[in-house]
Write a sequence for this structure.
């Protein structure tokens, strides 16, 4: 029985990872690629918010709860317990830094991703993007350039602005389902990258938005 449990602990995660890799390959460059068949990518609240980075949010909240409990109820056996209590209080506030950034960026980005549907049309080599207030059909030559704003960290947060030859533009956060298909569909687009510690979206009032 113990051998079976060890076997499952070792090989089940490995099998799951291999299955995910095979599925990812099939859905990006394989038989189910959006360049070969029609694919529909729909962004929902579940796909946007229920992601692995929220483990950092959960851990930060747990750390905050533990340290705040220590601030109010722990005994500090030091000559200056007030200083120890103040240090722990500062640590509790610091534990909210990463969760606060993730949540604030997501709440700022969510209106731009909510309900977005990206549909690939490989027969005519076009993409249909259903935004909250418009439907955009993109073909070769419609996008003039892309600006990408990101935090340049392992925990990637950011968004992209797609400028069209018509003079308008639209914004898609990184967490928009299928956003990667746009650059995969239309190769060689000019892309400019901007580093932002907290990549919040700020509408530019003098520019038209679709």
């Amino acid at each position: 029985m113990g051998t079976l449990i060890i076997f499952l602990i070792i090989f089940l995660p490995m099998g799951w990872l291999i299955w995910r890799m095979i599925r990812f390959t099939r859905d990006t460059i394989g038989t189910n690629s959006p360049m070969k068949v029609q694919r529909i990518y729909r962004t929902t609240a579940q796909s946007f918010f229920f992601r692995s980075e929220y483990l950092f949010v959960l851990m930060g909240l747990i750390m905050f709860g533990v340290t705040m409990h220590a601030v109010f109820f722990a005994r500090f056996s030091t000559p200056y317990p007030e200083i120890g209590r103040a240090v722990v209080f500062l640590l509790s506030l610091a534990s909210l830094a990463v969760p606060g950034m993730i949540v604030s960026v997501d709440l700022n980005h969510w209106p731009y991703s909510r309900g977005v549907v990206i549909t690939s049309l490989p027969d005519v080599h076009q993409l249909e993007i259903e935004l909250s207030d418009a439907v955009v059909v993109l073909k070769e030559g419609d996008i003039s350039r892309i600006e990408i704003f990101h935090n340049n960290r392992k925990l990637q947060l950011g968004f992209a602005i797609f400028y069209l030859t018509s003079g308008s533009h639209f914004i898609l956060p990184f967490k928009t389902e299928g956003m990667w298909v746009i650059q995969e569909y239309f190769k060689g687009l000019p892309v400019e990258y901007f580093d932002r510690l907290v990549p919040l979206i700020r509408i530019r009032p003098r520019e038209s938005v679709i």
About this structure: Strands lie at 40-42, 117-121, 126-130, 135-138, 143-150, 158-164, 169-173, 191-195. The mean pLDDT is 84.
